[in-house]
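Readers outside the structure-tokenisation community will struggle with the description of the input data as it stands. What matters is that the chain and its backbone geometry are given together, residue for residue. For illustration, here is how one protein appears when written out as sequence plus structure tokens:

…
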Amino acid sequence: MTIGKSRPAAAGIAPGLHFIATPIGAARDITLRALDLLAGADVLVAEDTRSLRHLMAIHGIALGGRPLWAYHDHNGDQMRPRIIAALKDGRSVVYASEAGTPLVADPGYQLSRAAIEAGLPVLAAPGPSAVLAALCVAGLPSDRFLFAGFPPATRAARRAFLAELAQTKATVVLYESPKRVGETLTELCETFGQTRQAALCRELTKRFEEVARGTLAELAERFGGREVKGEIVLVIDRAAPARAGAAEMEEALKMALRDMTVKDAAAAVADALGLPRREVYQAALRLAGAT
């Protein structure tokens, strides 16, 4: 990657805690607003200071004597008071996760809560996210989704975790370690069912990006015995709606027929219960003829 020319510092960065999203792969995916914040903030905070220094160098942003503090899972208790003190002094503080959007599988949550509880401004500059990138390329419904993070590492806890998600009426998005992804796919077959549609997204926006789509059984076979490298996002289709029984359909039709024609009642019940209209219409005719 070519190091960019020096970028002038942006003026007028408002005091407060600014969360910025950083690239998950391609360095050019960072937003112009995030670059302005990096160039002009009083204090920079990063989950990984080396990664942020490298990103700033690529885009020609000089640190210029400003403090750059590390904030991660292992030093949060010690660093939060220091960051809150800087915010209370009226300084602008930028926090950047190692990659992607802060607070998504990231230690920024407690920092956000601390600033909010102290009555300090908390702002976000949206941008790259592995969750949203995976949803875009998976080819699965995205109108309702659940990001469930990383499954537990131990087998028993992971199986319980996956079983709880199996009937979710939303597309499920998981992060997983490349070392465990084969085992997790096998367990997903057992808990979600082998025929559930899914996508395995690997190294999104990077040079060796790969998106594999198919049933969970197909993905488990493809990746089960293979050495997998890189960052993994699994996207799994939602559970199919449970089919209503005859008794439930009949009860719904009786209620609908009090105020509707046979045709309208059948259409309303079919849509509400997710049943074939012809089947419901025939049942409505029988009920109407019996009254």
